[in-house]
Amino acid sequence: MRLALFSTKSYDREFFTAENAAIAARGMPSHELAFFEPRLTLENARLAWGFPAICTFVNDHLSAALLTQLRDHGLRLIALRCAGFNQVDLRATADLGLTVARVPAYSPYAVAEHAVGMMLSLNRKFHKAYNRVREGNFQLEGLLGFDMHGKTVGVIGTGKIGQCAAKILLGFGCRVVAYDVVPNDECAAWGVTYVPLDELLRQCDIITLHCPLMPQTHHLIDERALNLMKPGVMLINTSRGALVDAVAAIVALKSGRLGYLGLDVYEEEADLFFEDLSQRVIQDDIFTRLLTFNNVLITGHQAFFTRTALEQIARVTLGNVIAFERGEKLENQVLAK
Ligand code: NAD
Predict the structure, then answer these.
(1) What is the pLDDT of residue 75?
(2) At the topology level of CATH, where does 108-298 sit?
(3) Hey, CA dihedral for 242, 243, 247, 253, is it positive or negative?
(4) 240 ligand 1 Cβ < 6 A
C-alpha cells in the first residue's frame, strides 16, 4: 500500500525502512513508503493527496477539515504510530468512513522506566552531579536526596504503563497507591492499594501520571488538585501535557507546594518538541518560566524512545496497514466512543 508518513525523523526512516524490507524478505507484499518531515497540517495537506494511507505521530492534529480534504483525495486509513489518539477527531473519522489504527503497546517498559528515571534524577540530582564532577567540583551541598524506599508513590492510571511503573516502584520498596476508573487486578494482587483520587493526592510523596488525555482528564492536575497535595510533593508527567495545568504548576512551584516536577510532555509541545530550536528564541513564556526552576526536569517527549519501542512501533504500524489492505479484522482499530 502507498503510505505517507508525516513528522518523520531519521530514526523513523531507519526503523520503518528496515521493517518494510523484513516484510519483503518474508515474501509478503511490502509497502511504498513516502517520508515527509513536516507535521501534517491543512496548509501542507496536498502532500498526502492520492495516498490511501497516512501514518502520523503525536503532534499531527487531524481535524475534521483536514480529514475531509484528505478523504476527498483518496484517504482511507490513518495508521497512527503512537498509542495515544487524543489528537484525532474520531467523530470526523467515523462520519467520513475513515479507519484509524494505532500501536496500543509498543513498550510500556520504555515509558515506565523513563518516569522512574525522572524521579531518580530529580531526587538524586544526577544532572547536576554530572556537570559538577566534570568541572572538578566534588562538593555535595545542594545534592541531598531522599530514600525512595518507604515513600508513598501514587500512580494515576494503572494500564499497561502505569502497571509497569507500579511494579518497578514496588521493587524499590515504595508503598504504591493508585487511582484508576478501572482498577487493575494484577496491581491489586501485588499489593497496590486503590484509593479515591483526592485521597491519593493527599497521601503521596511522589505522583506519576499514566492515564490518557480525554475531556475528563484535561487539567486533572489543576490548582485544586495541587492544593490537596503534600507540601514538597514530586509530580511526574510522562503521559500527555494537558493533564497538567502548567500555569497552576508554576504557582505551586513558587510556593513550594510542588517540590519537584518532571515533565516529558507539555500541553503546548507541538510547537517545540522534536525540533532543534537552539538557534531561536522560544516564544512560549510558560515553558521558559518552567525551565527557570532548579527543581524542574523536562525531557522532550522521549519516554518512548528506545530501540525496542521503535522496532515494535514499525512492526505493529505496518502490520496494521497489511491487515487493512487484506480486509482483515483490525485488532488495533480506534473507534469513536
Ligand atoms: P492504557 O490504556 O493501557 O492505560 C490507561 C489507564 O488509564 C487505563 O487503566 C484506564 O482505565 C485509565 N484511565 C482512563 N481514564 C482515567 C481517569 N479519568 N482517571 C484515572 N485513570 C484513567 O494506556 P498506556 O499504554 O498505559 O498509556 C498511558 C498513556 O501514556 C497514553 O494515553 C499516552 O498518552 C501516554 N504515552 C506517553 C508516551 C511518551 O513517550 N511520553 C508514550 C506512550 C504513551
Answers:
(1) 98
(2) Rossmann fold (3.40.50)
(3) negative
(4) yes
